[in-house]
Amino acid sequence: MSKKIDIKKKNSFFLLLIMIAGTMLFYSLFQIINWKKDNDQIQKEMEQIKKETIIKEVSSEEAENTTSRQEDSTTLEDDSENKKTTFDPYWDFMKYNYLEVDFSNLAKMNSEVVAWLSVNGTNINYPVVQHKDNEYYLNHTFNGSKNNAGWVFLDYRNQINTWEKNTIIYAHGRQNGSMFGSLKNILKESWYQQKENHIIRLSTPNQNSLWQVFSVYRIPTTNDYIQTSFSSNTSFQTFLEKMKNRSIYDFQVELNQEDTVLTLSTCYDDNDKVVLHAKYIKGQER
Questions:
Q1: How far apart are CA 174 and CA 42, in angstroms?
Q2: 95 vs 185: which has the higher pLDDT
Q3: Where would a tag sit more exposed on the chain, N or C end, judged by fewer CB atoms within 10 A?
Q4: What share of the chain is helix, strand, coil (3-state, %, to 5)?
């Protein structure tokens, strides 16, 4: 009798294991199907966006209305000898072309579009949106559809037309490399070795701008790098030094209290973030 009871217990146990395994398999398949569905929707939207959007490169040397927060034209000429003897990648990046985007059709698709971001050495080449909070675009696409892939968005505290001391852009780090999934590339030695990767191009309805990377790193989740306002120049200088010292590579970039920072942030995994900081070096009013 006891043997029959033991057999029944074993059968019940194996049946329970099978049910649990079947449930887990069903859930996994469900997640994979939804993940693919989200990715397909994102790809379809981007194809439509690029089809409807005029994007071109504009020579910075030919621009008539160019501003730089680093040096004025007189200083550039006077410092020509120093350029020849001292290595500073800033001078090379000053010659890079701007990215100029026609926002007329983009604004019709989504009135919350504020910029277009391009990062060399990654798949990041997206319109940037901004909502009244930092939650909406975590699970909505550019056209407002529900989607766990979300979109690339500007921190709600920032003003795109008047650069804050720290302007922050976020997106999910998708496994297929969409959104900020390829931002992980910045941690690779091969990415760092390509100097053209050290320039970020940002286009807004009012300005095209170039930003020079000065720090890249992976860090356990924290919020100290997403500070947007500072009580004094001294506190901002402390912030700059802290962010620069975190970098896993030396970009040979000088920073001061007058600089303006662009920060890109995404998840590396459930516990860590991947972060990039760049400083504003040049802009062309539109």
A1: 11
A2: 185
A3: N
A4: 40, 25, 35
